Amino acid sequence: MPGPRFDVITLFPDQFPSLVELGVVGRALKKQLFELNCWNPRDFTDDPHRTIDDRPYGGGPGMVMLAEPLVRCVKAIREARGDSAPLVFLTPHGPLLKQENIRAFSDQGAGAILLCGRYEGVDQRFIDEYVEQTYCLGDFVLSGGELAVACFVDAWVRLLPDVLNHALSATQDSFEAGLLDCPHYTRPEVFENKAVPDVLLSGNHAKIESWRFEQAKVYTERFRPELLGNPDSDSNNQTGKAGKKV
């Protein structure tokens, strides 16, 4: 079965691919394990200036992306694809995007049409009629949707067969079992007077697996207790040692 196809609607079709051409995802693209196509809605305008936005009704700052060029663009994509892949919009109005959502997308296999928003927003009539799924990366604002869409593609592609070097890598990631990943160590065995835990040097794989699972629970309780179903927890108040929110 061919890999998923991603059709990205973006005002920066020449620059977007660079966001996903690094590391394992970039190698997967070169190996044609997935297909990436970028579409510029300006190509679906009629005026000489290729206008894609206009002032918002009711006044206020910023500009709003026009519905009509987006509709024409989506119709052209659907004709090219020949399938019913969902049109996904990364927006603050959507639910938080989680690993379980990414895996559900990956399991269906076909790919998606991905809209990169810009300016003050997108004409709501287009969203109401054409957008099928919305998600949010978090409670912060980006200048455009390209970075968010690149994150979406990256998270999806790394779940595909033959993308990661080890078949178990994706299944042992954070969130896959409802927990954060356990801590990891590498050489040297002692660094700044801190030694690698003895169990990791034991060669006893059953004990190592058990230790990693217990440490995953400890780290989850420390940094993201809400993942364990604690209704009184608030991950926004959890800070790392360096004072950064996690």
UniProtKB/TrEMBL annotation:
Gene3D superfamilies listed in its UniProt record: 3.40.1280.10, tRNA(m1g37)methyltransferase, domain 2
Residues involved in S-adenosyl-L-methionine binding: 117, 137-142
Protein's cellular compartments: Cytoplasm
Keyword Iron-sulfur: no
Chain residue ranges for the region called Disordered: 227-246
One example of a Gene Ontology biological process annotation: methylation
Enzyme Commission numbers on file: 2.1.1.228
Classification via NCBIfam families: PRK00026.1, trmD
Similarity section: Belongs to the RNA methyltransferase TrmD family.
Name assigned to this protein: tRNA (guanine-N(1)-)-methyltransferase
Annotated source species: Limnobacter profundi
